[in-house]
Amino acid sequence: MFTLSKVIGFAIILVFGSIGYNFLPQLFVYLLPQVTWVHSPFVSMVVGTIIGFLVSLLASKPVENALRKFQEYVATLSASYIMFGTAGAIAGLIVAWLVNLPIVAFNIPGISNVVPIILTAVTAYVGFEFASSRREEIRRIFMSRSEEKDENEVLDRKEGDNFNKYKILDTSVIIDGRILDVIQAGFIEGVFVVSYHVLKELQHIADSSDSLKRVRGRRGLDILNALQKADRVEVEIDENEVPEAEEVDMKLVVLAKMLDGVVVTNDYNLNKVAEFQNVQVLNINELANALKPVVIPGEMMRVLIVKEGTERSQGVAYLDDGTMIVVEEGKHHINEQKDVLVTSSLQTNAGRMIFAKLADEQRAINNY
């Protein structure tokens, strides 16, 4: 049975045998002019084959390991990235050939021999990078008018309306899970885009040795599967490599710019970065805060004080939705149900805080 290592070794032997047949006779004529029998191409081929066999014993395994690493790397690349990149490299080679024609024709010593090689390598690389990083834009250029119309029209809206078709989901909002309920309730519409890099990050978290991270990662994958199976919900996997950025968050921002989309997240830092890049953001935490019941100063409520606050004599309680309530003089009533009177509330991007005082103290002040 042929293995990759044996195939590599056989290829090395063939290469050295061919080199021996074509080049060693002239070398032997120069080195051993008296030994005429070694000047034969067939003898030289045998010599080359023997050398190739010895080289294959040493080089087969390292070459096999290098090929397997290259194969693993290629497997991580998307098909569209490779196809567009290859087409761009071919276009670069054609451009280099056209430019090199007059350079070679001038036959300038030192330039006509070196510059074409450098120019060919540079244009092929530039063509590959340009085509692979701009493949979505290139695809749109070659779309037919009917396809482009279908691409731009969402729910019978016309181009130019205040609507962004693509909603790019980040890792945090997928793991959080509330986005599934929001989408199914119909409060967000359009095409929900999941970047290939977000999938890789979710898979990495799901394979973590930390049990808590592993549970969160698997929850995120379950949410994605539920989204794909949901009725009237369109989910697309984007395979753009986005070489302009290294971090996943920045890749999402760049992707949102490329697709003219909206980033959906509950990450405070990503929210700020996207806003700085003039990319629209939908923050699930802000939506949740907006839907919390309005608390009016002077309103009475009954809460369980669970711990001390950061300031002297303060106690902390929580509503069912997680809203923090800071109770003045509540330190001495931990683990007690107390009536409190709302004095003020503070809304921040991180959430809402309510400040209150014990109702008993307020009554005492009023009676006094």
Task: Please explain how this structure is put together.
With 368 residues, the chain is of the alpha/beta class. It is built from 14 helices and ten strands. The chain folds into four domains: 4-76, no CATH class; 80-139; 158-290, 3-Layer(aba) Sandwich (Rossmann fold); 300-367, OB fold (Dihydrolipoamide Acetyltransferase, E2P), CATH 2.40.50. It has helices at residues 4-31, 41-76, 79-106, 115-133, 135-141, 145-152, 171-176, 178-184, 196-206, 211-229, 248-259, 268-276, 284-290, 359-367; strands at 166-169, 191-195, 234-238, 262-265, 281-283, 300-308, 315-318, 324-328, 336-348, 351-358. Helix 1 packs antiparallel against helix 2 (41-76). The relative contact order is 0.06.
